[in-house]
Amino acid sequence: EIVSGESEEESNGINLMEFSDEILLHILSYVPCTDLVLNVRRTCRKLATLCLDKSLTHTVLLQKDYKVNKDKVKQLMRDIGKEIHQLNMAGCYWLSSSTIDHVTRCKNLVKLNLSGCHVTSLRLSKMLSTLQHLRSLAIDVNPGFDASQLSGECKATLSRVSELKQTLYTPSYGVVPCCTSLEKLLLYFEILDRSREGFMLSGQLMVGESNVPHYQNLRVFYARLAPGYVNQEVVRLYLAVLSDRTPENLHAFLISAPGSFAETGATKNLLDSMARNVRLDALQLPKAWINGSGLLQHLKFNNPFYFSFSRCTLSGGHLIQRVINGGKDLKSLTSLNLSGCVHCLAPESLFRKAEDDIDSSILESLVVSCCNLRHLNLSAAHHHSSESIGSHLCQLLSRLKHLLSLALPVCSITNVAADAEKPPAASSLVPQTFGRKVRIGIQTYPRNLTDQANQKMESSVFWALMRSLRFLETLEIIGSSFSSAMPRNEPAIRNSLPPCARAQSVGDSEVAAISQLTYLQSLTLAQLPNILTGSGLVNIGSQCQHLRTLSLANLGPMGKMVYLSALMDMLKHCKCLRDLRLEQPYLCAGAQFFQALSHCSSLQRLCIVSRSGTLQSDAVMSFMANCLEVIMCHMFVGESLTVCKNLQQSLVRSFQAERPALNVVIFPLLHEDLTEVIRDVPMRHLDEITLFKSRVAEEPPNLWW
């Protein structure tokens, strides 16, 4: 493009090559490294020199370069391998082990991320033996991993590694015992309770494995557990050493565990030791470790930047007194996760119902003390503003001018005075039908808002909030009782809980308010019951031109998809959209839908979850042929197993050769083998798009590079 545009530029008196090297280097920094080295540098002598500048070859990011293949990797490592100091190949699941071996050419590597890559114990040993400058490493530990196969040279390299990220698919310490200089340890536990053959797995580690990880220099400990008791058993083994002697320099201690993860004597000793000996900057604990204990009263904090009390029964009174110290200045706090913390905005939780009104003074204290928050998650709870006392939640949040990401429950954004005057619109205008499939045509919707609607917008607290948060990049509006039809490691959910009564009026006008977010990049909307036409989606599509990720789930009445026409119009504007997740019962994904989707020229990943939903196979094939960037196509619908398998085989046969990263799963949503199919999905896709979850403040910012 640079070369082809030169003649036109010269005719206008502008030549790109006349720009200074500094400007050209800045422009080239936005080009993937593989394109720079393998294509752009071959265009002219000046670009040949600039493309090999150290500022462009120092760090190579391949983690979402889905077009990279074995030949490109081989050529890249051959041309600039010695210049690379940081290499990120996370999630390159389509590259073979022999292709990954070419990393050995990068003799000066300091940081290496191989999460999601196929690397055996022997290959890892050979690779690390040559990387003597390595200080940061991310790997997977798969079944069959054997630490005894690591050579002396490999262990010498590991002894100098100070940052380790390890994803475990089998009970093991991995390479942790070899890393004697660890300062940052990130552990992701993805071990299933049952093998493919149906045998129950044990949390016991392999015989002969060292049980003495070296934590004396540890500053950051992070563990994220997938559901399952085996993951809990294994993480307790990692924590056992910490409970004996807590590192003096520990400043971030984070454990993310779903469901119930009971406290034991060892973990209690660990927490008591932490309360005595360390001052923390980041904290996240399982809910059972916090609920009913006075732990937060004794822990000491330095300049905290991240707190997560997700799913805890922590009351607002305790939050203010024990964490914020009654209004202590917490300007250092940039990320706060209160997802599922149902009483966090109430003074006490003992006699309170989850649906009772919040105490706005608690939220006000939070906003005043934590005025520099950039990421805030208040989802999965009923945060109802009072009709008569204090300010509305949206009015208080509008003071947080630095917010970049925000997650709210649907019932928290309603105008309480308006709700008291009018009944739920969705239930009265559209029949709720769950049992039978409703055949519908393409819905029409108003494209121009009436004066009455404009007046409602001007008086809406949510409209005012969106107007005040102009730099917001990520927004999630999720029903407090919403649960996805695809929970992890379980059969699909067949029935969902009804939305909160306070949320019944949230619909098209509130969605239209989001279009004020000019810089919005990621949007999640789930269980908005009063979506009648979807007209607000078109506003978002036309105004939010930076939108890259869109997730829509259970909008409008559950018996029919009333917003399909508006969605198709919206998609025609989404030129930058890369990820689309659509979860809606009775979706008829036919030719018109996929034709509209074909306008999303940047789309890379598509996930459709639809109970009783239907697909038009030839429309899917045509869409894939037109959208050349799509490398992930997951569809869980109501079609038969035969139809799904035939379509999946056709897609793989037609497009796998030219798209090496292609991952296709077409499967009946309610089939009993769904969990077996899910376990073969690459973790990158499963975690980022296929499974529904709130992602705002899920982890501390910049946890890993």
Automatic annotation (TrEMBL):
GO biological process: SCF-dependent proteasomal ubiquitin-dependent protein catabolic process
Pfam family, one: F-box-like
Residues of the F-box domain: 13-60
GO cellular component assignments: SCF ubiquitin ligase complex
Official protein name in the record: FXL18 protein
Organism: Baryphthengus martii (Rufous motmot)
